[in-house]
Amino acid sequence: MNIAATVVAVLAAAMSGFSGYSLLSRASWVVEAMEEYKVPKAWWTPLGAAKAAGAVGLLIGLFVPVIGIAAGIGLVLYYAGAVITVIRARSYKHVPFPVIYMAPVLAAFALGFAA
Fold first, then answer.
1. Which pLDDT score, from 0 to 100, does residue 1 have?
2. d(CA 9, CA 5)
3. Confidence of residue 114 (pLDDT cuts 50, 70, 90)
4. Mean pLDDT of the chain
5. What is the sign of the dihedral through the CA atoms of 32, 37, 42 and 48?
6. d(CA 8, CA 45)
7. Which of 12, 97, 82 is nearest to 44 (CA)?
8. DSSP string, 33-66
9. Minimal CA–CA distance to 57: which of 73, 68, 69, 46?
10. Residues 50, 71: contact at Cβ < 8 Å?
11. 112 has a pLDDT exceeding 90
12. Do 105 and 12 form a contact (C-beta atoms < 8 A)?
């Protein structure tokens, strides 16, 4: 794997890890958004854990590529679902946020496959 792909994968893992931690720790700005989107509270812990697991998977993927690919696919699907959730809640001003978190995952894929 080339240096750029590694750096972007680590960035994607850091961003997803932060996002997962923010949800698991119930940061006020995340709780407000989740309530606005009408995401059931029972889902918050599994969703935060999924993001955290995806972040760990991206890091493991630096050494075991199949794990990184699976984690990346999972995170892309997660963030695509987040975009849909935000749109369904008609909170259009928040649509860029899950896209911003998805972008480095997609970039890591592109750079990893280009190498």
1. 57
2. 6
3. low
4. 93
5. negative
6. 26
7. 82
8. HHHHTT--HHHHHHHHHHHHHHHHHHHHTTTSHH
9. 68
10. no
11. no
12. yes
Write out the H or E segment, with its range, that includes residue 21: helix 3-24
Q: What's the CA gap between 110 and 105, in Å, rounded?
A: 9
At 92, the amino acid letter reads Y
**Backbone torsions φ then ψ of 76, nearest 5 degrees:** -60, -45
- Give me 88's structure tokens: 């369904």
pLDDT digits (tens, 9 = 90+) for 21-63: 999 999 999 999 999 999 999 999 999 999 999 999 999 999 9
**Residue 11 in contact with residue 60, Cβ under 8 Å?**
no
Place of tokens 């006020």: 28
Q: For the chain, percent helix, then strand, then coil, each to nearest 5?
A: 85, 0, 15
